């Protein structure tokens, strides 16, 4: 596992940046990253209402997503800055960002890698816990009910 965060050129995505969401920001992923496959991270989903959010967990619960590796290491700083903007990381001095980018252990095909992830940065108090590990499936079911 890499020791220096500047050596980490992987990204784990679980929500709107996943391939199945057809988000315009996914173009950054598809153009600059190579899909390694479906992967798991220790975390928990909550229903914020307009959209689900994920937070880290020390418990034996996982969220499912996709692990990507940047195609060209020289592009990583630029493309991650674009994704930081999309996720609202860069806010004014008196504002709190909705998300933070952090390093996380990712499990894929029995192997463990370190990758960047965007975690929700707010309180989940009062939010409904989402039991499924796959947010795409959860949203498809939720949309069928509405």
The helicity comes to 10-25%
Give unreliable regions as ranges.
none
Shape: globular
Radius of gyration equals: 15 Å
Largest sheet: 5 strands, antiparallel
Strand percentage lies at 35-45%
Please give the number of β-strands.
7
Rounded to the nearest angstrom, the distance between the terminal CA atoms is 44 Å
**Structure class:** alpha+beta
Work out the helix count: 3
The SSE order reads EHEEEHEEEH
Mean pLDDT over the residues: 90
3D structure, described in words:
The chain is 21% helix and 38% strand. With 146 residues, it is α+β, with helices and mostly antiparallel strands. Strands 1, 2, 3, 4 and 7 form a 5-stranded antiparallel sheet that branches. The protein has a two-stranded antiparallel ribbon with strand order 5-6. Strand 2 (33-47) and strand 3 (52-56) form a beta hairpin. It starts with 9 loop residues before the first strand and ends with a helix.
